[in-house]
Design goal:
With 147 residues, the chain is of the alpha+beta class. It is 54% helix and 17% strand. The termini are far apart.
């Protein structure tokens, strides 16, 4: 740990409360991870995949699926809000959401949901082709689930 970092920790209590949270070795791993992410342009990749693939392709799904009320996100962190009606924005029911997940399972894709939202959150290292394939599988799952 650098001297300024150590001095900061002398003056400010870290509120993590976990055994490993303030450990110097854990901090070293964080710094190494940040350096690797910068060197390998991982954040740049996440940004580009979101701007060029996920955002446009997820927005295009709204044209094909009336049950999509909104698509929002950035980088590789997106939410697809499922509704019974776009005008009222009434959330899609749990049974239909379960059907979407089940159809994804049949296609070999894990569809993460929370309430009436589908979370599209692939790893930051995903390739543009993999992201496009994932959205295509989501499209198929939505169709199979009657959305």
């Amino acid at each position: 740990m650098s001297d300024p970092g150590a001095a900061h920790c002398d003056a400010v209590v870290f509120p993590g409360g976990l055994t490993y949270a303030g450990h110097p070795l854990a901090r070293g791993a964080i710094v190494a991870t940040q350096e690797a992410m910068e060197k390998e342009h991982i954040v740049d990749n996440a940004h580009d995949v979101g701007e060029k693939v996920l955002g446009p392709k997820l927005q295009a799904l709204m044209d094909r699926h009336a049950k999509i009320g909104e698509v929002r996100g950035k980088g590789v962190f997106w939410a697809v809000e499922m509704v019974t009606d776009r005008a009222t924005r009434e959330p899609l029911d749990d049974e239909t959401m379960k059907r979407i997940v089940a159809e994804g399972n049949k296609l070999g894709v894990v569809i993460g949901v929370h309430s009436n939202r589908i979370h599209v959150t692939p790893p930051c290292v995903i390739t543009p082709d993999e992201a496009a394939d994932g959205v295509d599988l989501l499209d198929k799952a939505l169709t199979a689930a009657g959305c």
